[in-house]
Amino acid sequence: MTDSATTRAARLADVARLAGVSAATASRALNGNDRGVREANRARVLEAAKTLGYTTNLAAQAVARGRSRGVMLVAKGMPDDFANPITAGVLKATQRRSLPFTLVSAGTEQSDLVEAVNLARSHRPETLVITGGRAADDTTIPALIEALRHYEDEGGRVVLISQEGLPFDTVTYANRQGGYDMATALVDLGYREFAVISGMKHGMTQRDRTEGFVAGLADADIEVSADRILVGEFNRDAAYAMTGELLRRNVNVEAIFAVNDAMALGVLTFLRDTGDSRRVAVAGFDDIKALRDITPSLTTVHMPWEQIAEEALAMTVLPRTTPPRTTVVKGHVIVRESTPRVTR
Amino acid sequence: MTDSATTRAARLADVARLAGVSAATASRALNGNDRGVREANRARVLEAAKTLGYTTNLAAQAVARGRSRGVMLVAKGMPDDFANPITAGVLKATQRRSLPFTLVSAGTEQSDLVEAVNLARSHRPETLVITGGRAADDTTIPALIEALRHYEDEGGRVVLISQEGLPFDTVTYANRQGGYDMATALVDLGYREFAVISGMKHGMTQRDRTEGFVAGLADADIEVSADRILVGEFNRDAAYAMTGELLRRNVNVEAIFAVNDAMALGVLTFLRDTGDSRRVAVAGFDDIKALRDITPSLTTVHMPWEQIAEEALAMTVLPRTTPPRTTVVKGHVIVRESTPRVTR
DNA sequence: GTGAAAGCGCTAACAA
DNA sequence: TTGTTAGCGCTTTCAC
């Protein structure tokens, strides 16, 4: 049996009629902002809305107001399991402000971001937060900038998280510094022979982390030959494979720095699978929650994800400036079991 | 310095004017559906849209059409790190169909779901997917049903995932069966003394899994005394604490069944922290990806998350029926290292 | 194949 | 404090 009986949704006019007031008054009563409504009328409107099961038509509201409330997050390259500390952080931050939150997930291709931004633009949200890594040689940057400029010209407010170097307000992390600090920490622990498992050749995030790490070692008079810096996809599986490749070469490695925790997990798992876990130390970057119970616990650069999201949202309510603002959030190294102190 | 210069977004009328056609034609050209547009005109419209940086005003479109395209997922009780296999599955499934996807995250309180559904309703999405656990004694169910009925009456299409027993199309998992199968599997491995770490007293999911497990044991003539079925919050930390409580009593437990993987992780971690990990076996439920690299690897009931999401989306395009459809998706036990065969 | 015009549900002057 | 009246930007008949 197949049903059909489809009415239409109750409209503001219906509520108004039932309450015996005009649409304008009903609107005022429902939206609360404009407080010039007699208490009795307000009550009747609310009552009417309730009995009709009325919900605002946000689309119509957005059309009338020219923009819709809330923040829309465009996240590029969401991982398979959807876990993403920035997304989580932004969601929480919007909840704290009781702002409507909407997620647009962009794919992993370069052009996906531009497309997603334009989709987001179509919704005319009052603020847009963009996140996700970027390649240094990304050819779609001009298109992205254009789309975001249009958006700002239309009166929208953008904040980028981690997409450093674009002419919009930005919150970034001190990737280079984090890498540097990790190098220092590992040297302090007594390590001398390193390898780096990195991702996506031109990815700026991983590039900066790697560079910082190498610089940190250099300052301690340690050199990492180029063949010990492996580059592949930016995920666990690739890291797993790269670790195999590295060790097969039988190089003398004491510690492996993976440019993010997901990759560190791949390294750790490979080592465990091959029984090498006690021989080689591993460090990551991000300090994601999902790895909190891993054995051995992972030495990593802790990033204050919630704070990053908070800063970004705080920025959205500030007026735009020329040049745009940039806030750099620092992480700090947390030494755990995966990098025990070396005793020679 | 503070900028201001705010233009307004390009409208369809602007595009039409620049292309030298009417708004109607521009609309037809842009939306492609109605193919009665001369090729030359279509090209000019597209061109004009591009030079103006035009993006459809989806809100206006939704108002005009009465409904907006795409699926909106209402997810209750998203975990802190945002990882949620159903969300991930639904996202993927919508992407495969290139449908716009929007997420509304509801809190963990009972009433949060109703509120979130009404928020979702306000967007007038063509389809709504609801997910998240439910308590057996949930007092907001009538309100939820009412909200969803309204939504359907307005012409929307709802599918519930895992919220069994409500008068709407539903995809559920065979929780009871999974628990039963796990019991059988563990008995087959040689275990005889069990405990269950369960969550939220009236949560239907965990209740069914627990009941199934107990029934499975009963069929093997094994009884679990009530004091070995611990109930607390439905998360890792609670499970960690409960395990401590259980073992402190010094009961003779060979295997612990946690009603989901997150809790199993808590159990596992507690055992590891106290050095008991080799003494007690652990099994979970869900087979979430995040735990793929845990040591020891976790015996669990594998759930086909992507398939569940697929089924749900497939349902949304079917006409409604009376009574509503229910699809039950089964999982299967995967035995891994956390439950080695018992040798006596 | 194309345009004019009506209307989608709401908000925001403006008047009363 | 309330109602009237224009829109908001788009789609969609209905003529041409």
Q: What do you see in this structure?
A:
The structure is a homodimer of 344-residue chains. The first copy, chain A, is an alpha/beta fold and 344 residues long. Chain A folds into three domains: 12-56, Orthogonal Bundle (434 Repressor (Amino-terminal Domain)), CATH 1.10.260; 68-173 and 305-329, Rossmann fold (3-Layer(aba) Sandwich), CATH 3.40.50.2300; 175-304, Rossmann fold (3-Layer(aba) Sandwich), CATH 3.40.50. Helices cover 42% and strands 17% of the residues of chain A. Chain A has twelve helices and twelve strands. In chain A, the strands form three sheets. A six-stranded parallel β-sheet of chain A has the order 2-1-3-4-5-11, sandwiched between helices. A four-stranded parallel β-sheet of chain A has the order 7-6-8-9, sandwiched between helices. A two-stranded antiparallel sheet of chain A has the order 10-12. In chain A, strand 6, helix 9 (204-218) and strand 7 (229-232) form a beta-alpha-beta unit. In chain A, helix 6 runs parallel beside helix 7 (141-153). The longest helix of chain A is centred in the middle third of the chain and has 15 residues, at 204-218. Chain A is elongated and about 85 Å long. The termini of chain A are far apart. The model of chain A has no long low-confidence stretch (mean pLDDT 91). Chains A and B meet through helix 4, helix 5, strand 2, helix 6 and helix 7 of A and helix 4, helix 5, strand 2, helix 6 and helix 7 of B. Chains A, B: Residues 10-65 form the HTH lacI-type domain. Chains A, B: Keywords: DNA-binding, Transcription, Transcription regulation. Chains A, B: It comes from Jiangella aurantiaca. Chains A, B: It holds the Pfam family Peripla_BP_3. Chains A, B: InterPro entries: HTH_LacI, LacI/GalR-like_sensor, Lambda_DNA-bd_dom_sf, Peripla_BP_I.
